[in-house]
Amino acid sequence: MIIETIALNGYRNYDSLELKFSPKLNVFLGENAQGKTNLLESIYVLSLARSHRTNNEKEMIGWQKDFARIEGKIKRLNGPLDLTMIISTKGKKTKVNGLEQSKLSHYVGHLNVILFAPEDLFLVKGAPQNRRKFLDMEIGQINPQYLHNLSIYQNVLKQRNQYLKKLAFSSNKDLIYLDVLSEQLAKAGSFVLYHRLKFVMKLENWANEIHQRITYQKESLKISYKSQLDVTEDMSEEALFEALMKALKESTEKDLKHLTTSVGVHRDDLHFYVNERNVQNFGSQGQQRTTALSVKLAEIELINEEIGEYPILLLDDVLSELDDERQVHLMEFIENKLQTFLTTTSLTHLNNKLSITPEIFNISEGTIEGDGE
């Protein structure tokens, strides 16, 4: 798939803009704080209906503007698509080929993107919630029902925690409603857990192959899904439901004491092992970065395997964070394979690393010069 054109109105520092892109490599070149990442972000938002930089959607609306609009013309194997995202103070509105979508889960998945930013290099070493977010965003792109069930899980989890607090100040410890919430949580949670386990299994296969290639067969990579439950990747959704129900029942006393839900997919994590050694705790910074790079590149192959075409790759100033060897591996991997958008302050990192000529867009204070203008 490729983005042929994008049009922005009232989006951050772009009052009005329309660009035509190369189907291969597009470079957004300019100094910091000029609008490179804003433009890259608009592609991400067009795909996933949310920003990777902020949870405050009002920040994406331009100064003294009532709304921001992003429109993209997409070319996929099964035909062209027109996508529209409108962000206002009242919320978000999405359209596919001019038809408004009633739910975001109906919209997400029409345009698949993989973002690789400097913070992704800390995927291995960072906090568990970063790895859970990584799983949720990537699985959600290829399985809209995953996002739907994740949303249900998060809402029920909030209700359950609120009810636990309510019980703490009640003389009547009525646990019937708590059991109802636990069942609802286990139902949505078992769906989420089932698809996470399947995703991690496939991701590991690709990531290990890529990691071995990058390290010249010196290192192997394993990815393990860490749950508080005794689960395996071959368990059915029904078996996972039963395991979650049992764990929630057994943790009732603890949950009432601490006023929060102590077990569930909201507390799970990923562990990475290089040559059987936990790279999060014992790996060098180089091994951690190579692992992160392997995982991000594996995402690309996994999505292609799942949907039958490559996603779009967004590289947000990540080359400057990689050494020359990892830069070469990255650029060789993407060349002539998928449409890529790259932000950078200098073309130095691309010198002698490409056999194709990139489309370059020079960006300064929200204005753009380039062949695609």
From TrEMBL:
It is found in: Cytoplasm. PROSITE patterns: RECF_1 (PS00617), RECF_2 (PS00618). One of its GO terms (biological process) is DNA replication. ATP binds at G30, E31, N32, A33, Q34, G35, K36, T37. GO terms for cellular component: cytoplasm. One of its GO terms (molecular function) is single-stranded DNA binding. The keyword DNA-binding applies. Its main location: cytoplasm. Belongs to the RecF family. This is DNA replication and repair protein RecF. It comes from Vagococcus hydrophili. The gene is recF.
